């Protein structure tokens, strides 16, 4: 019912920047929270940043001051601007929505995108 599609990942040198995008599709009326998580090899998936439908943001301590999350409600899209990237940021980045209200009024809980690889290396 709700599909998430990430884009913008890739290989970048330390100190570089990338911008991730995630577009939600389906017969969507409203989206509550949207966020980015990441999972590095051998590690658990962790929160990177979230933004609610009022624009309130939350960041992991490790990315504060370097990453910025934003959203375009008209496009059902969330972005993650990543600056000053470090090798420790290497991971698969996943887009998430917590509650989506469909045009029918039906709620859809916890949707994940397939992920996009971000590699920070020389």
Task: Explain how this protein is built.
0% of the residues lie in helices and 57% in strands. The protein contains no helices and 12 strands. The protein has strands at 3-7, 10-12, 18-25, 28-31, 34-39, 46-51, 57-59, 67-72, 77-82, 91-102, 107-112, 116-120. Strand 10 (91-102) and strand 11 (107-112) form a beta hairpin.
The total strand number stands at 12
Helix content: under 10%
Q: So how many helices?
A: 0
Structural class: mainly beta
Quote the average pLDDT: 97
Which characteristics define this entry?
single chain, 122 residues, mainly beta, 8-stranded mixed beta sheet, 12 strands, 0% helix
Topology, element by element:
Blueprint: E1 3-7, E2 10-12, E3 18-25, E4 28-31, E5 34-39, E6 46-51, E7 57-59, E8 67-72, E9 77-82, E10 91-102, E11 107-112, E12 116-120
Parallel strand pairs: 2-12
Antiparallel strand pairs: 1-3, 3-9, 4-10, 5-6, 5-10, 6-7, 8-9, 10-11, 10-12
Characterize this entry briefly.
0% of the residues lie in helices and 57% in strands. With 122 residues, it is mostly beta strands. The radius of gyration is 14 Å and the shape is elongated.
